[in-house]
Amino acid sequence: MKRISFTILFFIAYFGFANSQTSKLAYLNADKVLIDMPEIAAADTQLVKLNKEYNDYVEQLKTNYAQKLKFLQENKETLSNIIFEQKAKELASIEQQIADFQQKAQQDLLKKRDVLYAPIKTKLFAAIEDVRKAKGYTDVLNSSTGLILATDGKNNIEAEVRKKLGLK
User: What pLDDT is attached to residue 153?
Assistant: First the structure.
């Protein structure tokens, strides 16, 4: 049994090593290229606008909350217990409404970002793939994710990808 396991491990290691001998790797900082694409600025503008809309609504809720809180504080001595309790429940409900809305707004912004960025990333990945094929690389690593531990800089295809995308 040990002999079979050792033989299998040997073949896996051998063929893995043999395949790595024929690999031609390139790398680029995909995040840096993505940020420089003009489509990202347009998408970010839409996201900023949507975020402002959400923040404005939250401010309206907070203003409403502050007004009701002020009324309750100013009139707590003159209000009956039933009305006071009802007003306190309204305040708690508004607090919960604010928290719920902020959470939903954050989730919606992330979804919207994914939708807006998807075609831009597709364009970037197509350019990377075109350059990879044209230069004969087998694999392209993204240096922005920290995958490259050491390099001589010769196989950085960022400039070619930027050229393909029409970026400086």
Answer: 64
Beta bridge partners of 142: 28
| 57/111 Cα distance (integer angstroms) | 19
Alpha-carbon distances, residue 72 vs 58, 61, 82, 89, 93 (angstroms): 21, 16, 13, 11, 15
What is the phi/psi pair of residue 49, to 5°? -60, -45
SS3 139: strand
Question: What does R_g of the chain's alpha carbons equal in angstroms?
Answer: 29
83: tokens are 């009305």
Is 153 in contact with 39 (CB distance < 8 Å)? no
55 vs 9: which has the higher pLDDT: 55
Distance separating alpha carbons of residues 47 and 40, to the nearest angstrom: 10
What digits encode the pLDDT tens for the residues 52-110?
A: 999 999 999 999 999 999 999 999 899 999 999 999 999 999 999 999 999 999 999 99
Write out the H or E segment, with its range, that includes residue 141: strand 139-142
- Cβ neighbours of residue 64 closer than 8 Å, sequence gap 6 or more: 94
Report the CATH superfamily, name and number, of domain 24-165. Answer: Skp domain (3.30.910.20)
Total-model pTM: 0.72
